[in-house]
Amino acid sequence: MPELSRTQVAVYGAIAVALLFIGARAVRGEAGEAEPGYSTSNEDESSFSVEEAGTDVVVDVTGAVRKPGVYRMPAGSRVNDAVKRAGGSTSKASLDSINLAARLADGQQVVVPEEGSSVPSAETEDGPISLSTATAAELDTIDGIGPVTAEGIIDFREEHGGLSSVDQLDQISGIGPATMEALRERLQP
Q: What architecture is the 129-188 domain classified under in CATH?
């Protein structure tokens, strides 16, 4: 076997180091799909823990996505970012039914409906209406909210990147303390 020169040994060494570096990055990339401290599987809820982060928001992405679960997202992220983080939409997803450009709020649930399924509305759902995704028409069906106030809620939501609490509604013209109490049971952030 012929002797290798110092230059050849250096080149082979550099190639080996580069391959190790690329391999390490690939391993870290695969392991980093789900957020540390969060279980994205519905089967292992006992491992769920929350680590505080200064500017992140935590959202629950569910429905017609490939990897439903709880994800930590940077502040200012949009619904589209959360859907991508959850592996993207499935072939059955009805993305036209949700606002992909809406900013995420901490604690928000993002539901990607399937084609042909109805989007929950005030008339068909007994539970609370989500302030983060409700349309003006859905908000208008609630006693104490008319068309002008519904538009005010949507404008406020867009200006402030969503609503993290029903209590923020008191900042909107036309909603006073009495209306707030009536709305608490019909609305969620």
A: Orthogonal Bundle (1.10)
